[in-house]
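Researcher: Sequence recovery benchmark, item below. Answer with residues only.
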């Protein structure tokens, strides 16, 4: 059977009628320009459209499995919920396209370009995306699991809640892209030739709340050897408090003048050490090992490991990070003020 005339592609009803009369015949539009067509919910399996230019066209819910779209251009085209699995889409261009919730699993998008496009919920499991360029794209909650993303660029992209689990991310770059605590990088592959210091992970953006509340910030105090010291100081303070209270109740030592007053700063020491002890405990338990053991500089500059992993771990478990910081910092401030006051008093005493 012959392929449909191009003018039919712009008439939804006529095209559906042609498909009913020609079941199983794929469309062919090599290098053709398809403008203002409505191909939504159409069966375009094995379509042969290399180099085609789709402009202001609706392919919403269209079935394009195993299609050849090599070098095609999708401009102001709606591909939301379209099925592109196992399609050949190498070297394609997506400009102001909508791929929200589209399924491109196992498709080949290598050397394609996505600019100013919408891809929220885009499903690209086990897809080939080598040397792809994503720029100014909305990719929140997209799914790139087990895909090959070598040398792919994400520039100024929204990646909140996006999953890259088990994907090959060697050579990727992330300049000015946005991630959050739900962006996943578990089990990702990074070969030794990944240029960690220059992959743009130092200029990624995070939610405003997480700019201050994260494990990197908590590490300022958490990585200091304060864990055991805080508990020892709290134990000493509690012991002194308990001992004085017991002596005042029992009055067992007759030579003492009762009631024995509590040291004026003992309560502050107790509160400061208690806050610091609980905060450092949360830090020790909840802080990811990568952040706990290494600063970003050590991780990237010395170990040459991807900074995006360190950033992602820093944003994980945000509630635990908030509670750890809310306890550690006040506790450290209280004890620090007491220590500085004691030092100043000692200096004044020696000079008088």
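Model:
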């Amino acid at each position: 059977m012959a392929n449909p005339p191009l003018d039919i592609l712009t008439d939804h009803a006529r095209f559906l009628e042609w498909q009913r009369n020609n079941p199983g015949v794929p469309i062919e539009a090599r290098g053709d320009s398809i403008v203002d067509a409505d191909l939504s919910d159409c069966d375009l399996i094995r379509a042969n459209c290399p180099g085609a230019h789709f402009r202001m066209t609706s392919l919403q819910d269209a079935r394009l499995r195993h299609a050849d779209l090599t070098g095609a251009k999708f401009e102001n085209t709606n591909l939301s919920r379209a099925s592109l699995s196992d399609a050949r889409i190498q070297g394609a261009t997506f400009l102001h396209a909508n791929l929200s919730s589209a399924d491109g699993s196992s498709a080949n998008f290598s050397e394609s370009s996505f600019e100013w496009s919408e891809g929220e919920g885009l499903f690209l499991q086990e897809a080939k995306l080598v040397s792809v360029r994503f720029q100014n794209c909305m990719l929140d909650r997209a799914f790139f699991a087990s895909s090959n993303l070598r040398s792919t660029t994400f520039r100024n992209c929204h990646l909140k809640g996006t999953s890259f689990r088990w994907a090959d991310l060697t050579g990727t770059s992330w300049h000015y892209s946005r991630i959050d605590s739900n962006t996943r990088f578990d089990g990702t592959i990074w070969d030794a030739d990944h240029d960690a210091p220059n992959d743009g992970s130092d200029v990624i953006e995070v939610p405003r709340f997480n700019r201050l509340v994260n494990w990197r910030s908590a590490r300022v105090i958490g990585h200091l050897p304060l864990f055991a010291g805080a508990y020892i100081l709290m134990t000493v303070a509690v012991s002194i408090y308990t001992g004085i209270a017991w002596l005042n109740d029992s009055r067992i030592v007759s030579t003492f003048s009762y009631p024995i007053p509590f040291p004026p700063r003992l309560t502050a020491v107790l509160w400061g050490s208690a806050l610091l002890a609980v905060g450092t405990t949360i830090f020790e338990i909840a802080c990811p090992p990568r952040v706990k053991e290494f600063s970003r500089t050590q991780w990237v500059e010395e170990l040459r490991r991807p900074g995006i992993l360190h950033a992602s771990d820093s944003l994980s478990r945000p509630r635990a990070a908030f509670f750890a910081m809310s306890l550690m910092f006040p506790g450290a401030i209280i004890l620090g003020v007491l220590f500085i006051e004691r030092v100043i008093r000692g200096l004044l005493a020696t000079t008088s």
